[in-house]
Write a structure and sequence with these properties.
The protein has helices spanning 20-28, 64-67, 73-92, 102-112, 145-160, 162-165, 171-183, 190-199, 215-225, 232-240, 246-259, 264-272, 298-311, 318-321, 329-341, 351-354; strands at 2-6, 36-40, 280-282, 294-296. It is mainly α and 362 residues long. It starts with a strand and ends in an 8-residue tail after the last helix.
Length: 362
Amino acid sequence: MAYSYSHLDSHSFDYENESDAVMLWVWGLGNWPTLIGCEIPYRSLLPKSVEGMLVACRAISMDNDAHYQLRMQRDMQRLGEVAGVAAALAVQNKTTPRRIDVGDLQQKLCGTGALSNPAGGYHCETWKPGKLFAKKLARPLAGESASALRMIAASSIAADNAPARLESGDPGERFSAAVALALAGSPAAFPELLRCVEERRNVKTGGPAHRQIEAWQFAVALLGIAGRKEAIPQIEKILADKTADLRALTLAVRALGRIGARSSAAAIAKLLKRKDIPSTVALQVSCSGFPPVTEDALWKLELAAAESLHALGADRRDLVEKYFDDPRGYVRRCARWLADKLAPGKPGIGRKDTAAGAGMIE
């Protein structure tokens, strides 16, 4: 019913609390400003089990990650156009929006210029900007976001000569090569990533400066995603490091939960007893001339700890329940989402699920 493109316009800085796909796209591939796009299906406007309703706003059916791209003003205007035309067709045909002939809807949208190429089923290239992300892959995508990222990375390794760059004398070169190899699933990456953590290497991730982090912190995330048990001692040291910031502590907590050694629960519990955790963070300023808003973000670390401890066999629902009555609505929402996820019979930690409740704050 429509086309859409943008960069991954998340206003978050805390990608440690995003899905794997978003974190790896921004920190791993440096692609925050890269244009991405999609076709929008009509069914995304139709709520399940509710007849006679069209949802023509940011509440359409899409997951949290997709929302970062499909939320621009022009997208909302196009959704409104589609909903208006669909509603008119439903009234004219004495039916509901779910039962209209979508072909008729597409024909009318083609007449307004909203769609193109009816002969090709309205699939076309004309809506795509010149710099839209495109990567020739070795095989078709299977539909899983993490697999797609792995395939994107794998398709770049030969062109970027990543195995050779892993032997470079430049620490930045070695790190970027290790990231590419890690995203592609190559075990050759992990010794270099572990050295990066041990040395607290003074290197940044790729992409625009305001979306970069210390390379060693991202290395912690990659080691956790890969479940590398040899990294546990170094990651646990971070939890006792008084110079580690909130992001580093959160990444370490999440990595230990993913690696899954139950002995790590003690290190996380000890961290939670600290009274000196640096928890004040500044939020994004989107309008010039205004000072940044700061908040106490300890809640992010404590929710991450509750999730990881759950994966390690320790029940700390108290860390979650304390935020049920927090004055900040987004904090209450995240706490209740996590409480539901950690309820008996629910699966343990899984960053693939994290996108549903996190991207915890803009």
